[in-house]
Write a structure and sequence with these properties.
The protein has 72 residues and is of the alpha+beta class. The protein has a domain of 32 residues: Rubrerythrin, domain 2. Helix content is 25%, strand content 14%. The chain has one helix and three strands; from the N terminus they run βββα. A hairpin with a 5-residue loop joins β1 and β2. The protein is rod-shaped. The protein starts with a strand and ends with a helix.
Length: 72
């Protein structure tokens, strides 16, 4: 898997084993590149997580259902 390097001067992202000698966008030297790391999205929110308790969730579901019926 290729690594991704981000230029700290302009934000350009380079794919490769090593950063380029110079940024093709702004000309910054390779020292200005840092290994780009993706943040793992382990905190996926469900709709239920947006409500304090289950009663609030059920009330919101009922309101949505009623609005859909009114639109039809």
């Amino acid at each position: 898997m290729a690594k991704e390097w981000e230029c700290m001067e302009c934000g350009f992202v380079h794919e490769g084993a090593r950063p380029p000698k110079r940024c093709p966008e702004c000309g910054a030297p390779s020292e200005e590149f840092e290994l780009y790391e993706y943040e793992e999205d382990t905190d996926e929110l469900e709709d239920e997580d947006l409500f304090e308790d289950e009663e609030d969730w059920e009330e919101e579901e009922e309101e949505d259902f009623e609005e859909e019926e009114e639109e039809d």
